[in-house]
Amino acid sequence: MTTTAIPADRETWERLAAKLHPQGRAIIDGTATEAEDGRTFDDVSPIDGSLITQVARGSSADVDRAVAAARRTFEAGHWRRTEPRERKKILRRFAEAIRADTVRLALLETRDVGKPISNSVSVDVANCAACIEYYAEFADKLYDEVAPTGPDDLALIRREPLGVVGAIVPWNYPLIISCWKVGPALLTGNSVVLKPAEQSPLSGIRLAELALEAGIPPGVFNVVPGYGEEAGKALALHPDVDLITFTGSTEVGRLMLRYAAESNLKRVALELGGKTPQVVFADADLKAAAYDIAWGIYYNSGETCHAGSRLIVHEAAREPLLEEIRAVAATITLGHPLEASTQMGALIDGKHMQRVLGYIEGGVADGARVRLGGHQALKETGGFYVEATVLENVRPQMKVAREEIFGPVLSVMSFSDEGEALQMANDTPYGLAAAVWTADINLAHRMSQALRGGTVWVNSFDRSTMATPFGGFKMSGSGRDRSPHAIDKYCDLKTIWTAYR
């Protein structure tokens, strides 16, 4: 199914999906392998509740095998001692292999997580390849340093790979977030064990196969699917893992720190939850703001860590802005993810759908009012869909204003002055991102400086490139993905001091 011809209609996508037989085994030391104890779990599509395939249910024994393979290849130097120019060539081949496999990868992603196929093609697969290519270009451009010393000494400062990197990734953007971690880890010469979310294991397994095809040595990039409390916990506790890089919930992020402390004090990099505020002043361009606010919460069905889930709007602009948001939401098509026209697909599974609906019900019980949506949709499909929703009359102390819903739910609050807006925007344990909308450049600068978030957009939302770092403040985690800044966490600095006698 490796092809660059992208289908344009649902019928073709469904025909291709029927022919696709996903590989659900772990990739350890270059070989597809069942779990050591033979156990599997069902991988179910949120599109219609159907079984996609059975996947190896990795355990601590499988993690042991993967880590041992990663350590052995690291110590042998099969990858870390590869000449930088050659490493660049191989990583670029990896990126091209991803692009050539767009149809398969997009189908795996859409069937696994329920996102529109158009997004899987143009955003997820495309950005995955671009990430690997971006880091490939650093391979022969990273320099070590010479420290200033006296004439009788030479002090070299070397950047060296850590060793074995454990990467645990979530189900909302499996391809993109996997490559945000795998790209810089491989660039710097590490070996990797990837644990994809149990809800979305298939694209990570396929990535490891493509890496092998591109020439990355066996054992350098391993994938162990399985449950978080089994394979994920075993990876985080493993005494021969040097770094855990984790993206997911703040609750599990706490566990990562605990597991590191209980094992070998491994390094931990965390990108966790968010409750992003969209702060809109009365002088803002309301049409532009409404467009980005609507897409900022309804894209990917709201299953985005930095989704703009809190609208904090000046009371004078509240009604006209909400009407503009309603108009934009009406143009966002909720439907079957393999339809070319679909812009908003399924939530990840039934349990999560009920969680999102529970937040809506709880918000209403606390005094909020449903302005738009608020219900399950497309029940007849057997899948897990929720309407684009707006909750108004939200107060800052409500759960829908403070907790991460991770669904297509916008909570609306009003303010009367700048100080109140800032206080409400920062009144959250999270600090992943924020946005401010105003025609006053001085106000924009004041707010962007004062808002506590790893990214602050001004008169825009969710604009980024690989060149900009991504991560958060406060309980949104520590460390950064993307950009040259992400490279540092996969390296150690070694000083080599030579005295001339």
Description:
By secondary structure, the chain is of the alpha/beta class. The chain folds into two domains: 10-272 and 477-495, 3-Layer(aba) Sandwich (Aldehyde Dehydrogenase, Chain A, domain 1), CATH 3.40.605; 277-467, Aldehyde Dehydrogenase, Chain A, domain 2. The protein contains 15 helices and 24 strands. It has helices spanning 10-19, 60-76, 84-100, 102-113, 117-136, 174-187, 202-214, 228-237, 250-262, 286-298, 318-329, 350-365, 399-402, 418-426, 441-450; strands spanning 26-28, 31-33, 40-44, 51-56, 145-147, 153-161, 164-168, 191-195, 221-223, 243-247, 267-271, 277-280, 310-314, 369-372, 376-377, 385-386, 389-392, 409-415, 430-431, 433-437, 455-458, 473-474, 477-478, 491-499. Strands 14-17-18-13-12-20-21 form a seven-stranded mixed sheet, sandwiched between helices. A six-stranded mixed sheet has the order 9-8-7-10-11-23, with helices on both faces. The chain has a three-stranded antiparallel sheet with strand order 5-6-24, with no helix packed on it. α13 (399-402) links the parallel β17 (389-392) and β18. It is globular and about 75 Å long. It starts with 9 loop residues before the first helix and ends with a strand. The mean pLDDT is 97.
